[in-house]
UniProtKB/TrEMBL annotation:
This is Serine/threonine-protein phosphatase CPPED1. PANTHER family: METALLOPHOSPHOESTERASE, CALCINEURIN SUPERFAMILY, SERINE_THREONINE-PROTEIN PHOSPHATASE CPPED1. Gene3D superfamilies: 3.60.21.10.
């Protein structure tokens, strides 16, 4: 489903040289991901139809000066309790 093997390494190597720390994509109908060298590859599930075990939801990504933090929330979880405190602190710049 991803890029052919012959094109993936040059694209990810270029991203690493450019200082990219994470690549996010979505609509895969399940959560997935991995790491290539120091590059995080994060795939988020669709908000609608699920094909895996994940519930309907969305991924919240916070980019701070010194890190990238991301977390997947089910719609129920997000509606009931909202974002976790550490993400809210990062959003406030604390």
């Amino acid at each position: 489903m991803g890029a052919p093997a012959c094109t993936a390494p040059p694209l990810t190597s270029f991203s690493l040289l450019a200082g990219v720390k994470a690549v996010f994509s979505g609509h895969y109908h399940r959560n997935a991901g991995g790491t290539y060298r120091d590059l995080d590859m994060v795939v988020s599930s669709a908000i609608g139809c699920q094909l895996g075990e994940d519930t309907h939801g969305l991924r919240v990504v916070v980019v701070a000066a010194d890190r990238i933090v991301h977390r997947y929330y089910s719609l129920d979880e997000l509606g009931e309790k909202g974002l976790d405190g550490d993400l809210l602190d990062l959003l406030r710049g604390e």
